[in-house]
């Protein structure tokens, strides 16, 4: 098979985004656009990838890492000029080069494969990926001759009235014979309304040399959306969300309101999971079979076990076991490890803590830097006092312990196995196993005293 190369154009500032963040780094479902582009295009088995960077070069390089080589375009003089920057790395190579824009995050691996196949079958020097746009405003138009062959591409800003009516648009994606591409680029000028070196001019240049140029019309215009501003960014988010949600539904996940459910690309969801409205699942999250998430729940990099239920809660970088019940209104902060069958109720915050099997923290508690054993009951309002303003300390609660309501456990401290802490205690010393610890002021009752209070005179 002929060698395959890709050039990703990602040097522009993205003026129309009106943003500090460089355009191709704007996320769509949590993933920078340029990363989506690379993820999809690499499915065609590329021998080399070159990303052209300029604005935000270091950030784009950090994002793509080793998956790409980089060429620097110091000044953004147009898409043709951008491709020329990859010359040193690629120009002497034989094979096919796909050029893609870093701002078309919705094009799928299948479309890239279809484009390659079409290009190779036709034996063309250039194949443009085109689409029919209901509203082609802003896109380059495909100009065909009377035999319906592609002649050239005209940019929106350079088009005359007749050309503006053409609905077939340039998606900004092309396959080229690699050597023919770099030769033709030598001839591109900046004699146009934007004073830029357009990559699109290569088509006419090849055509004038009587080289074969073709177009592959993809049936799905939606997929080829180029994101130039935040209105398009929101459209991209919507389309990708729909695509991902439908994939999960086809795999056996119930999504009650797909328009209102945001599942990022790397999330894994097993069968018979139910996702309620307003839920956001991010990063490397896995939700195992029969679990129920939401409504209004945010999970980021979490593992959620089988048959677990999480309502109206936020969980980050944590592992949650099977048959756990969380929420409503719980906050599971990083490095929580919640055992099977545990219960975490309303207004409970858990941070960097382990909770053993079957343990319960049902109401209004803070558990931070704690090792909690199994079958522990943590009463309402219990606080692990883990921080003295400088350092954090560990609280250990051994199996079967019972912590009475409104207790403060001043770390470092250990509550032994099977022990009881009386409600309202402030525990600052270890409690041995199988004991009862009471650490609160004794109660005094003054009988009849109420009348004295009630009869006090006003000053
Ligand atoms: C481009 C095409 C247009 C097509 C549209 C599809 C040209 C001249 N026009 O227009 O025909 O319909 O895409 O979405 O190619 N970039 C650089 N360096 C530069 C300029 C741009 O790296 O000097 C990068 C940008 O970061 C971006 C991509 O190239 O990722 C496309 O540039 P953009 O300015 O968005 O081109 P469009 O005006 O959308
Ligand atoms: Ca664009």
From TrEMBL:
Record's signal peptide: none
Record GO biological process: cell morphogenesis; cell wall organization; lipid A biosynthetic process; peptidoglycan biosynthetic process; regulation of cell shape; UDP-N-acetylglucosamine biosynthetic process
SUPFAM superfamilies in alphabetical order: Nucleotide-diphospho-sugar transferases, Trimeric LpxA-like enzymes
Phosphoprotein in keyword set: no
Cofactor(s) for this UniProt protein: Mg(2+)
Residues noted as binding Mg(2+) in the record, renumbered to the chain: 103, 228
Top-level class of the enzyme under EC nomenclature: transferase
Residues bound to UDP-N-acetyl-alpha-D-glucosamine: 9-12, 23, 73, 78-79, 140, 155, 170, 228, 333, 351, 366, 377
Known EC number: 2.7.7.23, 2.3.1.157
GO molecular function terms noted in the UniProt entry: glucosamine-1-phosphate N-acetyltransferase activity; magnesium ion binding; UDP-N-acetylglucosamine diphosphorylase activity
Active site: 363
Positions contributing to acetyl-CoA binding: 386-387, 423, 440
GO cellular component, one term: membrane
Region spans: Linker: 231-251
Catalytic activity: N-acetyl-alpha-D-glucosamine 1-phosphate + UTP + H(+) = UDP-N-acetyl-alpha-D-glucosamine + diphosphate; alpha-D-glucosamine 1-phosphate + acetyl-CoA = N-acetyl-alpha-D-glucosamine 1-phosphate + CoA + H(+)
Region Pyrophosphorylase, residue ranges: 1-230
Region of interest (N-acetyltransferase), residue spans: 252-459
Subunit structure: Homotrimer.
PANTHER family reported in the protein's UniProt record: BIFUNCTIONAL PROTEIN GLMU, NUCLEOTIDYL TRANSFERASE
Function comment: Catalyzes the last two sequential reactions in the de novo biosynthetic pathway for UDP-N-acetylglucosamine (UDP-GlcNAc). The C-terminal domain catalyzes the transfer of acetyl group from acetyl coenzyme A to glucosamine-1-phosphate (GlcN-1-P) to produce N-acetylglucosamine-1-phosphate (GlcNAc-1-P), which is converted into UDP-GlcNAc by the transfer of uridine 5-monophosphate (from uridine 5-triphosphate), a reaction catalyzed by the N-terminal domain.
Protein name per the record: Bifunctional protein GlmU
The species this protein was found in: Oceanobacillus limi
Gene: glmU
């Amino acid at each position: 098979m002929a060698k395959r190369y890709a050039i990703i154009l990602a040097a522009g500032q993205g003026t129309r985004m009106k943003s500090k963040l460089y355009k191709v780094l704007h996320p769509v479902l949590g993933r920078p656009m340029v990363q989506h582009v690379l993820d999809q295009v690499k499915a065609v088995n590329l021998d080399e990838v070159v990303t052209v960077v300029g604005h935000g070069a270091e950030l784009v390089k950090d994002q793509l890492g080793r998956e790409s080589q980089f060429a620097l375009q110091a000044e953004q003089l147009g898409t043709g000029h951008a491709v020329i920057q990859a010359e040193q790395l690629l120009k002497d190579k034989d094979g096919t080069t796909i050029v893609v824009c870093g701002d078309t995050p919705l094009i799928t691996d299948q479309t890239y494969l279809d484009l390659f196949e079409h290009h190779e079958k036709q034996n063309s020097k250039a194949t443009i990926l085109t689409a029919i746009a209901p509203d082609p405003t802003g896109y380059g138009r495909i100009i065909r001759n009377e035999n319906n062959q592609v002649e050239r591409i005209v940019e929106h800003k350079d088009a005359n009235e007749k050309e503006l009516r053409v609905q077939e648009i340039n998606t900004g994606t092309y396959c080229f014979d690699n050597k023919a591409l770099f030769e033709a680029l030598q001839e591109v000028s900046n004699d146009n309304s934007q004073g830029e070196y357009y990559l699109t001019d290569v088509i006419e240049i090849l055509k004038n040399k009587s080289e074969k140029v073709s177009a592959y019309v993809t049936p799905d215009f939606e997929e080829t959306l180029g994101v130039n501003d935040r209105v398009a960014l929101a459209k991209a988010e919507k389309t990708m969300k729909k695509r991902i949600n439908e994939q999960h539904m086809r795999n056996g996940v119930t999504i009650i309101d797909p328009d209102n459910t945001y599942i990022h690309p790397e999330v894994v969801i097993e069968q018979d999971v139910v996702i309620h409205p307003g839920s956001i699942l991010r990063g490397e999250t896995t939700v195992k079979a029969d679990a129920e998430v939401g409504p209004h729940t945010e999970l980021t990099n979490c593992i959620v076990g089988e048959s677990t239920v999480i309502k109206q809660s936020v969980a980050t970088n944590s592992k949650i076991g099977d048959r756990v019940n969380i929420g409503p209104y719980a906050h599971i902060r990083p490095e929580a490890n919640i055992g099977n069958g545990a219960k975490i109720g309303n207004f409970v915050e858990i941070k960097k803590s382990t909770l053993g099997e079957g343990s319960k923290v049902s109401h209004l508690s803070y558990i931070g830097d704690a090792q909690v054993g199994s079958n522990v009951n943590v009463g309402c309002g219990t606080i692990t006092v883990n921080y003295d303003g400088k350092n954090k300390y560990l609280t250990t609660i051994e199996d079967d312990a019972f912590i009475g309501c409104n207790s403060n456990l001043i770390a470092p401290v250990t509550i032994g196995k099977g022990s009881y802490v009386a409600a309202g205690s402030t525990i600052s010393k270890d409690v041995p196993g199988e004991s009862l610890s009471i650490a609160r002021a004794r109660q005094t009752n003054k009988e009849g005293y109420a009348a004295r209070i009630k009869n006090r005179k006003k000053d």
